[in-house]
Amino acid sequence: MDNLNYGIIGNCRSAALISKEGSLDWCCLPEFDSTSIFAKLLDEKKGGSFEIIPQGECTIHQEYFQNTAILVTRFTQGDDVFEVHDFMPRHHKMNGKYMAPPEIIRFVKHISGKPKVVIKYDPKLEYAMGETKHFIKKDFIASITHEMKYDTLFLYTSVHKQSILEGKAITLEGDEYFLICYHEKILKPTTEKMALELERTKVYWLDWVDKTPTYKKFNNEIVRSAITLKMLTYDKTGAVLAAATTSLPETIGEVRNWDYRFCWIRDASMVIKVVSELGHKNSAKRFLQFIIDLMPDKDEKLQIMYGINKEKNLTEISLDHLDGYKGSKPVRIGNAAYMQKQNDIYGILMDVIYEQIRSFSNDIENVEELWSITKGIVWIVSNHWQEPDKGIWEFRGEDRHFTFSKVLCWVALDRAIKVAKMFGKTHKIEKWTGLEQQIKEDIHKNAWNDDINAFVQSYGSRHLDASVLLMESYGFIHARDPKFVNTVKAIEEGLSNDGLLYRYKNEDDFGLPSSSFTICTFWFINSLFKIGEEEKALEHFERLLGYSNHLGLFSEDIDFKTKRLLGNMPQAYSHLALIECAINFSRKESDERILESIS
């Protein structure tokens, strides 16, 4: 079965995907959302790749170097053994900042024998829209395109350059390197320098993981997910990407293909909340600054998403010359959803602001700005909470009164009141409490359906929706409240398919969804745990972990029948929910051990 058996490497500036066979099939340089230099992922013939192909049958094993973002692919053919260590350099500079150049290093480590390989170096710049030509220069191979737009790429290597371009077999008798650079190097690279870059990058990741708490259960899964979330953060602005790819389909052969290389306020806020809990407060502070920079005017409405460099216009276009992943057209860049109105983002943002002030009250700059944003959010919510919107799933049809959006409007008021208490703003507390109660009563009255015996997708609807499971997480309702318990059971009966959850089962703009949205299953597991069905939750969780790819990575969706991964990957949303579930199970075990020691 085909699956998204890809590993991600990255340095918080860009990222690349490398297949289980060691083929570099996706990368955009110099940044996450730049045009692609390799896009075999989206068109096997035209997209371009960088492959190190052993001659003859061999065994391939791939894993991450433990607690790092360095991907190791080992090729074994009898006594002929070599490894490819793939990474994007990232390490500390003397001034406290980080080196994170737009570069990929493929360090070939000779283990034994005399392996023979052919190098297929085939970058296709600018999404392969025009021809890319290669020129051998004294120190590098230059790849150039200028039909649609001028762009260049440089390959430095210890291997014979002519043999690379001619596809001749190369015998490995010692360590070699390939350095793919967006910019021409001033100082000539060497194998020794590349080995040093490998060690420095290794140290960076080991240090980063060392700042993360150790958990009793599922620690490896938590660490891998945390590293993945870190790789999806953009250092320069503090933005967090939804995923590293575009147009990987939710269903093979269909048109639900979107560009996820942007910062959704909702996804990013949830990621930051989890990353803060793991002790990485600098990421949280940078994201808060990202938001502050986006809201210069007190009455400016927040978009649901932005470009990673704070771009507000994300015009969506199709690249019709590309066939798409497994023939799934169209390939899209940009995302028209940026124009949608989704009322939930204010509550999600307010929740993050509250958590940061609560956790780091003595260490947060811009408290005055945060108070201004808090007041601004309440003003916007008070004026717009009664309006319909597109909802969390970005329905492109008519607006509705989605339950999740209403709950998050309540969250905005609840957290704003808590912030006001921390700042001693009593006059605001009195003013805002009445509105908070009004929203809560409105939800209980209109989102509850007596016939279904559950909270439903939108006011007046009979449809179930996995997003209402987050009511408990956000403190709107207690886990043991009969209304919530009944909602969890109704969702299990109505939306579960062989242990995997639909987001919803009503038809949307593109028909009935035929794959499971991975995060929804994690939400369901969390809800089972909270209502007291902990053994059942653990059983579901362990089964779901088994659906990850060979490196423990999750994409956006899972096919109900085949269990293959679908959608953009790796998906930040999926990994943050994995961490939340794993921490709950780990804490439960710790609590039980404490009780046993007391008794």
Topology overview:
Blueprint: E1 6-10, E2 15-19, E3 24-28, E4 36-38, E5 49-54, E6 59-64, E7 71-77, E8 80-87, E9 91-92, E10 98-99, E11 103-112, E12 116-122, H1 125-128, E13 133-136, E14 141-145, E15 151-157, H2 161-166, E16 169-171, E17 176-181, H3 191-210, H4 219-231, E18 233-234, E19 239-240, E20 263-264, H5 265-277, H6 281-294, E21 305-306, E22 317-318, E23 332-333, H7 344-359, H8 367-384, H9 403-422, H10 426-446, E24 448-449, E25 454-455, H11 470-473, H12 482-495, E26 496-497, E27 500-501, E28 515-517, H13 518-530, H14 534-545, E29 557-559, E30 565-566, H15 572-598
Antiparallel strand pairs: 1-2, 2-3, 3-4, 5-12, 6-7, 7-8, 8-11, 9-10, 11-17, 12-16, 13-14, 14-15, 15-17, 18-19, 20-21, 22-23, 24-25, 26-27, 28-29, 29-30
Helix pairs in contact: 4-15, 5-6, 5-7, 5-15, 7-8, 7-9, 8-9, 9-10, 13-14, 13-15
GO molecular function, one term: hydrolase activity, hydrolyzing O-glycosyl compounds
Domain GH15-like: 219-582
Keywords: Hydrolase
